[in-house]
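Q: Two folds, back to back.
A: First:
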Amino acid sequence: MELAHTLKDLSLAEGSENSSGANSVIRVLSQTRQRFVAEESVKPSLLKTTLELLQGRELRWLFPEWSSDFRAAYVEVVGCFTEYAALPVCDSDSGVLPASSYEQIPPKAEAVGSVLLALTAQLGEAVRSSDSAVSGTGRALLRALGPTLCVFSITHLQLQPWTSEVSRTCALKLLNSTVRATGSGSLLELLCGKETDGDQTGMLGPILDTLQPELTKDIWKRNQAVKHVFSWVLVQVRRPWLADYLEKVFPPSLLISDDYRTDNKILGVHCLHHIVLNVPAADLRQFNRAQVLYHALFNHLYTSDAPLIQVVLPCMVDLLSVLEKPHVQSGPPRKPNHFDDVFRLILTHMEMEHKLALRRIYASSLLLFIEKMGIGIARHLKRLERVIVGYLEVSDGPEEKARLSTLEVLERTIKTAWPRMECRMDVLSKSLLRFLVDISSEPLAPELREELMTRASRCLLLLDHCSQGKLLVLLKDVDSSCVSDSVLKCIQNLGAAQGV
């Protein structure tokens, strides 16, 4: 479309395109914004007209000399466009709207995204322009619009009820175009800045500042997208940059994890775990942050929601490594600490748990605690023994994940606390033999049965080492008429491995 027709569509007087300096583009943008706000029916056509305007004008006309009015004109019109594709406000306590509420969002996001994509492409050309005035204006305008462009693209980038394949593709193009326009080599560089010449300023701070008003206790559920945008941005940033933004990311993560909805709790814990892994321990301990996080996670341990427990336990293990000093092999006995409190609670829950999904999660996570606690597990051997024996007795389905994990836990326990294992040899060896007899008659896949028997045999062999060979002497008295050939062969292989 020719510029004269475009300006006519915007109800501008003839000659506007010939106005001096920035007056022309400011007038076009201001008129566009006014009509866009006032007339609902013309919004699609105005977006199309603006797209043609951005694609059809030279850089000098689009980005003249910098001024506060020029900046405001672009910021306001971009703000109006992104608001057009914003999600409907949710007033319910759940913070969730039915999927039908978002039916109109994808096409709106695609239309707005196309306009913003054209704008960022032109801004990129302006930044690379040999005209210093145009280049300077382009850089300044990118700094002003960058956070809004990023938040909009990330909002419509993820697989959510308010996105479609087309809108997600458009959002990804917009984000990549923004990265290129700023001259960044990657998204991380866009967020955190370049390290050359001491310039480490990126867009992460302004993006978090843009999100912060919507991440307060009273209104964070009104926009369902804001928590997903926050978490998506957060996990892109790792060491050493994240520590500089701890004050901005820690409170919202705690807020989300403290919600009553399980999906929000899981999202919040994911954010907190990322912070624990990517912020120095000293910064986490400062101002008692680590203790606050510990109490928040400890409360989650009482849940019976398997998906939540699955993310809480690994996060807790890594947090406890921040709170407690590494265990040393020598020196005076270590006093009970947070590790012991959490381990004791987990063993209590494991003893009483009957849901197979939770049993699998607990059994797999138990190994993480044993590896971190080391010989400190000696305080809990009596209860740990009961848990191991109980879990080996119950089949958990075709894959036997819980029992596989339990055998791995037993093996690690024997290796870690071997001086204390001889007195427990009787109970554990009987449990392992009973386990071998059980799986020899259960309808399992041959490969799985072989793996279970191999791991159980390895545990028996370790117990024999701890007892200075006493176990194998006892196993010689096993009545071959009472066990299957596979179990008898397993026992014979143990003797061969020991050279008996």
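A: Second:
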Amino acid sequence: MDVQTEKLNLKREVGLVGAVSLIAGTMIGSGIFMSPQTVLSSIGSPGASLLVWACCGALVILASFCYAELGTVIRESGGEYIYILRTAGPVVAFMLIFSSVLFVRPAGVAGISLSFAQYVVAPFYPDCAAPALLVKCVAAVSIVVLAAVNCLNVRFAMSIQVFFMVVKVLALAVIIVGGLVMLVRGHTENFQDSFENTNLAISPIGIAFYQGLWSYDGWNNLNYVTEELKRPEVNLPRAVVIAISLVTGLYLLVNVSYLTVMTPMELMSSNAVAVTWGNKVLGSWGWIMSVAAALSAFGSLNGTFFSGGRVCFVAAREGHMPAILAMAHIHRLTPSPALIFTTIVSLLVLIPGDFQSIVNYFSFTAWFFYGITLSGLLYLKIKKPELHRPYKVPIILPILVLIVAVFLVLAPIIDNPQIEYLYVTLFIASGAIAYVPFIHYQLCPGLLTKLTVFLQLFLEVAPAEKNL
């Protein structure tokens, strides 16, 4: 009997509005409500902290332009993974996916869920820190809920993303307007001698940038879902410009508002800066800011899930992860096995993790691979100028961003070396060691085949083809 199988593809359901929402909605999340105090305490002065936020925005815009060219030349989902695979080869690409799937992406999910949970429980503990176990339980529930949403329907997940982006922009608008009103009333004392006590050591500058760039994380999310984007050669560059310009402007104005309402010491000592701001400006209505910050983090977590599952999915399709992770649900057309796997690893990372450590090690690892990705763009520009490029940037842009990426990776190590960064580096390098037995020599194929067949029947999934 001939059995004809229909090829499965992830549908192109992400238009320009959805693309802007995916980038901006993921970027505007926990960071702008959790990182300002650490940026300020690291760099030492209000003026320098604003400069750090502006430089982070400029860096992300330049990097995203480079990624827009990569996304229109290599029109496959997967972001850094697929770009490194096509330029630097399978070993380096496996090192990325090994680090990304087992740490970077789950760390991002865990960090955002922790900040969401802190804002959810903050109103119930106004005078003290909330119990760590309660915070982690709420964070775990948020991860499981959004995993279910993303497994069920792509269109519903994108609708959630658009809705929460509107909510979080309105929340930031309230903070901005409140700050401007206070400025007009003459509250400018916190900006006098605004660069006094600036810390110019290399390590604090690097840590300040790590915390600031965490708030901008998500700028490259659209490159993970290129195959689900309508007209990527047009919508990818447009969405990048619109979303990141919007977010950078909002972040600067929000930080000005924070510094207008709170003294630097109040800002640095706050556990939930938006709640502190709300209590000082809105009085008894201050709890609204806690709700807004929680919703903002929830929307960001949804975007991180949406893109993060696709990285795992693409790597499995290329043979660098178990085959089951490259499959999509036969009815819903969502990469549910990859999303379930990401959920499990994220919950494991959540158990021992704390927010600040997750952010620092996440940023260190992420910018290491961003640097390799940008090196790949330089390689394509120099060695393969004949490739069709619907969108193109001057070669100076990837060179500048690459220099900054090298600084961000080396700064914390050179000035104030900590053993934890060595552990992270060894973890990244261990990916090359794992590549030999598990990918090159394909150990335990029989066991994996049986497990794949069982999970394929249990989860109702089938292999999905590339959507080019």
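Q: And?
A: The first strand starts at residue 327 and ends at 329.
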